[in-house]
Amino acid sequence: MGLLESIREPRDLRDLDGDQLDALATEIRDFLVTTCARTGGHLGPNLGVVELTLAIHRTFDSPRDAVVFDTGHQAYVHKLLTGRMAGFDLLRQEGGVSGYPSRAESEHDLVENSHASTALSYADGLAKAFRIRGEDRHVVALIGDGALTGGMAWEALN
Q: Is residue 68 part of a domain?
């Protein structure tokens, strides 16, 4: 069994040392290339966020801490690290995992979106709600340069 198959939830990453995390990143990339070649999907964006997603899930406590993707089709690594590897056999097909975050799939998917410059607004709203309720929770928004072209992102930054 490889390292990827041993990951059931994000906190499992905390038990891995640096060499194991590097090996896991390689396994994830190999898995994504093989899977997307067979099923289709958004390969490039996910290959680009492997280490970033590993670091976020090793540092923060999802689902207690909210992780929000502005580009929802970059969430494949997030899905793998939150126990949904088996669903990749039918990626983007009935019975498999969605190509985007899906609340129906996992409590780790708080927001369903694709790419609409919404992540910063969601993150701002979630952070304010947690603060108002007195909850000690973090919010992480993953955005790219394309997200900053939308008005909602600027409103959240304001």
A: yes
Please state the pTM of the whole predicted model.
Answer: 0.94
Could you list the beta-strand ranges (E) of 55-120. Answer: 66-69
Instruction: Round to whole Å and give the CA distance between 5 and 85.
Output: 8
Question: pLDDT tens digit string along 36-56?
Answer: 999 999 999 999 999 999 999
Give the single-character DSSP code of 143: -
For the chain, give the number of residues.
158
The model's pLDDT over 119-156, given as tens digits with 9 standing for 90+, comes to 999 999 999 999 999 999 999 999 987 888 888 888 88
| Phi-psi sector, 117: left (phi>0), alpha (psi -120 to 50), beta | left
> Residues with Cβ < 8 Å from 6, sequence gap 6 or more?
12
Alpha-carbon distance of 23 to 51, in angstroms, equals 11
Q: What's the domain count of the chain?
A: 1
Q: 99 pLDDT band (50/70/90 cuts)? A: very high
In a domain, residue 106? The reply is: no
Using the structure block, give the residue that is written with the tokens 């690290």: 81
Looking up residue 40, the CATH number of its domain turns out to be 3.40.50.970
Helix (H) and strand (E) counts in the chain: 7, 2
